[in-house]
Amino acid sequence: MLESQVGKLENRSKPIAVIDSGVGGISVLRELVEIMPHEDYIYFGDSANAPYGTRDKSDVLNITRANLDMLKDIGIKALVIACNTATSVAVKILREENPDLIIVGIEPAIKPPALLYDHPTVLVMATPLTLKEEKFLSLMAKYADRETIIPLPCPRLAELIESGELDSPEIDKYVRELLSPYREQKIDALVLGCTHYPHVKDVIMRYVSPTVRIFDGGEGTAQETRRRLESAGLLRSGEGCGRVKFLNSSDDERLIELSKKLLCRQ
């Protein structure tokens, strides 16, 4: 009994790992820190293998599995896959392979517009692989009778955001060209289906109507992580803030500084 209690206390003190194909998942990390400030976090950005969204499915699965194995060696109490592409490809398999680890994924926030509007038209920006995967197609089918969903592949956007120039002329031009076909169409909501995209939300808002409501899955993922940890008795309590450790598979030191900057950016 005492051994079990000691083990639980040890596990409770372990960090939560957050992984993404680069700096995009910082948008989810920000939500996690907001609702669970006492926790320690390890953020692993896999910039050396980015972008995931144009890779083969088997590549994304193998990369995500290897990244999880590395983090398990460090010692973690939960994994948050803060990448829509990696979630759609790998989350189910990794849960089956790691039944004793809390693994939370993210998915495009298609449900909230259906609750807010009467049959809205919803534009979903995401990577090509996310939009082709069964997870997204099933989600789209589930809400097909409650909203009109328009998938919009954005093959280069995550890569451009990785550069760190979030308001560059190149990003502005790319977003403008992506969204220009929909300027005259009545769009009620826009879903940011990649965790990189909230970092350029201000740019995106320039090219949609002011009445369009923008959604992303970060807050819902953070709330689900908290719920799962609480249910398992693994939430850390106390006062003060935990620590955030940044790791990156690239040897470009600029990416660690960019990650810290994005975490503090409002």
Note down, in words, how this protein is organized.
The protein has 266 residues and is of the alpha/beta class. The protein is built from 12 helices and 9 strands. The chain has helices at 2-12, 26-35, 57-74, 84-97, 111-116, 128-132, 134-142, 157-162, 169-179, 201-206, 218-231, 254-264; strands spanning 16-20, 41-45, 78-81, 102-104, 121-126, 148-153, 189-192, 213-216, 244-248. A 5-stranded parallel sheet has the order 4-3-1-2-9, with helices on both faces. A 4-stranded parallel sheet has the order 6-5-7-8. Helix 2 crosses helix 11 (218-231) and helix 2 packs across helix 12 (254-264).
Structure summary:
The chain has 266 residues and is α/β, with parallel strands linked by helices. 45% of the residues lie in helices and 16% in strands.
